[in-house]
TrEMBL record:
Organism (species): Oryza rufipogon (Brownbeard rice)
Pfam families given in the database record: DYW_deaminase, E_motif, Eplus_motif, PPR, PPR_1, PPR_2
Identification of the protein by name: DYW domain-containing protein
NCBIfam families assigned to the protein according to its UniProt record, in alphabetical order: PPR
Keyword Amino-acid biosynthesis carried by entry: no
Length: 659
């Protein structure tokens, strides 16, 4: 019937589309059904070729096809249109953007700009959002500037997209400018009176996220606190918690999570919230709280632990909290595993010195059909380095290019250098640096400098530091390493020279700090710290333990007391190391049989490692020490029978303090 209409009836396009829309009123139509309907509409319209010049019909079809993801059909309609207006071009850009074909959207956008065709806010926003979502944040900000200069006014969605770009860049100044622009142009209310407007809250959430990622927590928290408690949604809480967990104080993240789920306006966290709070637990090594979050997840069935998103976060948390066995239990319970799941499990085993198990996971990953990439090999090389698996590590390094066609990056070379140097092959490590196909980066020179610390090679260490200085990549860690190398060699004048150079350059050495979770809470200690109320008992216990382990064969490694003093004073300085103080506090405040988990901000010194090995044989605790590079486990399988040994010392010291 439609095909028999007279050609003179020009308004048929309008009536046809209106009729199609009216036919769908009150009818549940799935997108797939609507797409099929559009195909039928197009077939009819193609027979009515006199309708194709009708710009209204063409634009409506392009818009509809774009929203249904049928961009091939949209392109055909666009190309058949004899006349195209601004709406036609805008609809095409929006369609490409909505369907995820940002490359085509960007190309069309460039052509539109060359032809000076006006753009509407939808098109500007589509391009800005496309750039922002693809990580091209500089381009997103540049397009936003073009939009403002063109006289087009952004809407809330535009502002959200451009704030996301600022957040990715950490562009604090630009973010503040956009915040001010939004207030000036009434895109935000000054009094935060949302009145049920979701768009306002979305912009405020984006502002919190931006300020958090720019590490301006005062500004982020000010906006967060101004939002009425009953108006905050799950995104509001999540961006604030995530900001603290990732960039700020993880303790604040934990406090916010408790507030979030508390009555009377308790908000149920989503999977992203859970991932953020697990990240905070990992940063703090707060395994007790992490386990409580795990239990919360299990009790609330909205979180599917068989899926890999939340489970991956649990794997990371347990690894960083020192419980790799529970880590493996979570991993094995997953019905779906992503590449991140496999890699996270390998990282966990590698960090805990269980290299053979890390490589076993690597083999199972390949058998499961996952092809390892450069990140996977980086994890494998780290695992081999941590565990002293030199030959296996070098074999995997060669396998990257030979078997998988992957070109090793500087980070892979740094791992290989660390692997060689750590186990006595410093000459070959230096040859590897010289033979690198690319210019060695800072990470390579730091790896070589660290190796020189182990082997006391002053000349090569000086060369590595000079390279870092040339690259402006030196920091307190680099200067501390060379200073320690000089101290070990007895070159105290050079030690003084390095300290003077650091002071002149404004570089401060980070003081060693360790913290431990005991039954009475978390305590932190610096070197020689005597500020804790239990300090008398802590030092008395350490003195008793050192005497006992000396009788077992422990010899203090005074080369780690990096001061120009006599041997007796060096012995006293070693006792005051922060990790030893943390261990003594843990022994005084932790029930027998419970693990003592210590975290240190710098690498554990060799003497403390040796002392802990002996102490673990005479106390009824597993000792787990986490430093920036790995976990150190100290456990004696038979220490449960040694209660009559050194444990009486611990019991005596516990009795002296007010617990």
């Amino acid at each position: 019937m439609l095909l028999n209409l007279p050609k003179a009836v020009k308004p048929i396009g309008v009536r046809f589309l209106s009729g199609a829309r009216a036919a769908c009123v009150g009818v549940d139509v799935y997108p797939s059904h609507f797409a099929s309907l559009l195909k039928e509409c197009k077939a009819i319209l193609l027979h009515m070729s006199h309708l194709m010049p009708d710009v209204f019909v063409g634009n409506a079809l392009i818009d509809a096809y774009g929203k249904c993801g049928l961009m091939e059909n949209a392109v055909k309609v666009f190309n058949m249109m004899e006349f195209k207006d601004v709406v036609s071009w805008n609809a095409m850009v929006a369609g490409y953007s909505q369907s995820g074909n940002f490359k085509a959207a960007f190309e069309l956008f460039k052509n539109i700009r060359k032809e000076n065709i006006p753009l509407d806010v939808v098109t500007w926003t589509a391009i800005i959002a496309g750039y922002s979502q693809r990580g091209c944040s500089h381009e997103a900000l540049n397009v936003f500037r073009q939009m403002i200069f063109s006289g087009s006014l952004p809407n809330c969605v535009t502002i959200i997209s451009v704030l996301s770009a600022c957040a990715s860049l950490g562009a604090f100044s630009q973010g503040m400018e956009i915040h001010a622009y939004s207030l000036k142009n009434c895109l935000l209310t000054l009094d935060n009176d949302f009145g049920g407007e979701d768009e306002d809250l979305m912009v405020y959430n984006a502002l919190i996220d931006m300020y958090s990622k720019c590490r301006s927590f005062k500004a982020a928290r000010s906006i967060f606190d101004d939002i009425p408690l009953e108006e905050r949604n799950v995104v509001t809480w999540t961006v604030m918690i995530g900001g603290h967990a990732q960039y700020g104080d993880s303790n604040d993240a934990l406090k916010l999570f408790v507030e979030m789920i508390s009555e009377p306006y308790g908000v149920a966290p989503n999977a992203y919230t859970i991932s953020c709070i697990l990240m905070a637990c990992a940063h703090l090594a707060a395994i007790r709280i992490g386990k409580q979050i795990h239990a919360y997840v299990l009790c609330h069935h909205r979180y599917d632990l068989s899926a890999y998103f939340v489970a991956n976060c649990l794997i990371d948390m347990y690894s960083k909290c020192g419980d790799v066995d529970t880590d493996r239990h979570v991993f094995d319970s997953m019905s779906q595993k992503s590449a991140i799941s496999w890699t996270s499990m390998m990282i966990g085993y590698g960090m805990h010195g269980r290299g053979s198990e890390a490589l076993d996971i690597f083999d199972k990953m390949r058998k499961a059909g996952f092809v390892p990439d450069d990140i996977t090999f980086l994890v494998v090389l780290y695992a081999c380095s941590y565990c002293g698996m030199v030959d296996q590590g070098l074999s995997y390094f060669d396998s990257m290019s030979a078997d998988y066609g992957l070109t090793p990056r500087a980070e892979h070379y740094a791992c290989a250098i660390d692997l060689l140097a750590r186990f006595g092959r410093l000459d070959k490590a230096w040859k590897t640096v010289k033979d690198m196909p690319m210019e060695p980066t800072a990470v390579v020179w730091v790896a070589l400098l660290s190796a020189c610390r182990v082997h006391s090679n002053v000349e090569l260490a000086e060369h590595a530091l000079n390279k870092l200085v040339e690259m402006n990549a030196e920091n307190d860690g680099s200067y501390t390493l060379i200073s320690n190398i000089y101290a070990t060699a007895g070159r105290w004048k050079d030690v003084a020279r390095i300290r003077h150079l650091m002071k002149k350059s404004g570089i401060k050495k980070r003081p060693g700090c360790s913290w431990v979770h005991g039954q009475k809470g978390t305590a932190s200690f610096f070197v020689g710290d005597r500020s804790h109320p239990l300090s008398p008992q802590i030092y008395a216990l350490l003195e008793s333990l050192i005497d006992r382990i000396k009788a077992m064969g422990y010899v203090p490694e005074t080369n780690f007391a990096l001061h120009d003093v006599d041997e007796e004073e060096k012995n006293n300085l070693l006792v005051e190391h922060s990790e030893k103080l943390a261990l003594a506090y843990g022994l005084l405040t932790t029930f027998p049989g419970c693990p003592i988990r210590i975290t240190k901000n710098l690498r554990v010194c060799g003497d403390c490692h040796s002392a802990f090995t002996y102490i673990s044989k005479i106390v009824d605790h597993e000792i787990v020490v986490r430093d920036p590079s790995r976990f150190h486990h100290f456990k004696n399988e038979y220490n449960h029978v040694l209660r009559g040994g050194a444990m009486w010392i611990v019991d005596q010291e516990k009795g002296k303090g007010k617990m």
